[in-house]
Amino acid sequence: MKKRVLFYPIKLIKYIKQAISEKKELRKIILEKQKYLVPGKYKIISSSGKKLIYVNDYSTKQFIQKNVMHLSKKRQNFIRKFIIYFISNMMAISNDNSCSSELQGTLVMVTRNKDIRIFDFKQKKNVVFLCNEDKLLTLAFNYELFSKYFMIPITQFDLEERKYTEEYLDFKPHNLWDENDKAKVIFDIFSNYKEYYQNIDKKKIVKIRTGKLYKEFKKVVKHHKLISLVSNIIINLDRDIYDWPLVNQHGDLGYHNILLNDGGCYFIDWEDSNKYIFFYDFFNYFYTSRNIKYYFEGFIDDELKELFSIFNIKYDSNNRLFYFIVFIMQRSLWEVKINPFPETILNRASLIIEDNIKYIEKKE
Fold it and tell me: Which residues, 6+ apart, have CB-to-CB distance to 61 below 8 Å?
């Protein structure tokens, strides 16, 4: 009981200390980008690993409530809401300078990797400043490649200022998708990738053997339970005969990077695009949306058969767990690379593997 009483004061002190140190960095961003921002008092909150600095006008507030806060999976109780409200007001930053560009930004989003996105809701566009030039060049290349097959709302690149401009699209938040919406998204993902895969030059594709991926996974991913689960499956199934085609894909395809509206499905944030095993993005979508059961229960077997056949590989529904393990190895390597504290994510992967081992054993 005593621990419960002390919990919130300790948390509050921790949040306040962190807020004070972050405020200096965020004030610097406001000063650097002030010509893109309307004058006013800017509040600060955190959501899904991102920092949001915003003017509390109607359009901006609606965006935050509708399209950002829903990504938080935990319900906030009254005390937690009060702490967040108190800190966001304490951290408020004033921008007294008049806006001197065409953009009239009211919201600044700072991502985990320090990229900066500024939203102008009146003109329905946003500008993204990337942390390095190579990243922008990669994104421009990806846009050229993937926009032939996917709807991507990027409009203009500016290499000199290391930025790109996107059309802002109103969209339906993921937590409001009904079954028809989910079916539409799944259909678009598969049909777009199918067309893309059918048109790439198969002679230039590089492949990776399961054993090589497994060795890298064991070397890099320091998670005993996950390594043990993967090892048992890889060793027992002896599936090292597979050479997996590595193909340029989105790399972080999840509901958070899909904008669904009356115009269709738009795919955003291609910065993590790279060469992945050809089914990586499909698994990643179901994995991040916590709907991997659709895969294990066979609902997407027909679609996967088609995709496997494009690369002359036979899809075997008896190997569902093995295919998922191959995805998890590559996903874990990516997670360790971008996340300084990947323990929670890797714990979740371990639980999913354990649950589906039990599910398969029950069926048998």
Answer: 54
